Amino acid sequence: MGYCGLDFGTSNTTLGVVDGNAPRLIALEGAETTLPSAIFFGFGAGRAEVGRAAIDAYARGIDGRLMRSLKSVLGTDLIDQDTLLDRNRIGFRAVLQRLLSEIRARAEEAAGHPLDAVVHGRPVHFVDGDDAADRRAEDALAEIARAIGFRHVSFQFEPIAAALDYEQRVEHEEVALIADIGGGTSDFSIVRLGPDRRRAADRAADILANDGIRVGGTDFDRLLSLKSAMPHLGYQSPMKRPGLLAPNGYFTDLSTWSKINFLYTPKVMAEIRQVQRESARPELIARLHHVLEEHLGHRLAMTVERGKIGLSDQAAFDLPLGWIEPGLAAGFARPAFEAATDELCRSIAGMIRRCLADAGLGPERIDAVFLTGGSTLLPNVRRAILDELPESRVVEGDKFGSVGLGLTIEAMLRYN
């Protein structure tokens, strides 16, 4: 039986197989083992581009539609809706199926054999506080996996998978907190690990706590966009009528990866023109109109994302927006970014305290903190985690590969 571990992430995707007894990640795009979770439908073209090629096609101005952060629709009513592609409509289930089918095909070609069993990664909660929506999200992902050809489909929590990857380097028994801060969710597990436990088929007794929240890198993108870029497009700008501000909804959606495409409709464009007529700062709303009319929303989101990454190791960062209007730029400093995202970090810290309470452990009982997921590179996110566990050893995981490798280890245990 050909089996694999599939980490379909909000921002990036990896897929692993086993060579001998060792897991390895498949190169899904050239030599790269990470594939951006993006798909581009070129209008008039017969095929879709995925990954970096999708982002490149969009950046080159090819007429079409870019979709990113598709994992975010799981567990919401968007999964059963459709969106306009040129003159045709396509459902989000079909979009996810196209993307994951291409990933499976590339993996089979690289592995040199069929893959008919998969352990899918999943966040602890697709949707916070809604068990029914959580089940629907997993069911939808399982249905899509079977539709693209996997005969055996099972799931593992992403932080547990990261723990399995970390356990391969553990030399003695310890208790670790696994922090997986990805594009869409923050997931935590407290797990008992050790070299004598690695081959056990049932690890339920070793999982001391497991929880998460729907807070991730895209939320930091959204808040950075609202604070830095969107005021230049009219966010919170005054209307002619005293006491009124421009409607927030357009700017919030434009700052949210999964909602950008919903703004590209004749109805929304007509509404924006009306807002411009009634605005006390119509020149700002004109920029918003330009971004939507030219379908530049994802370019703006990618510019903001690069700014967020820049603030990981720089005190300040300028967002170049000259492609909206010559000379336009939005400067932003790390203290302002951290102030804007403080509530997100406090939510992450609160989840760690909740996991410790669930495990019945004090912070001093955690031997190691294993950090994975791209958003753990943000300084304020790291502080939020490590301040809760000041005595623990910090272990840096593969920021984009640990979960995929752990899922592959789980696949080997389940299907070998």
TrEMBL record:
It comes from the Bacteria. One of its GO terms (molecular function) is ATP binding. CDD domains: ASKHA_NBD_HSP70_YegD-like. The keyword Membrane does not apply. The keyword Ion transport does not apply. Keywords: ATP-binding, Nucleotide-binding. This is Heat-shock protein. It comes from Aliidongia dinghuensis.
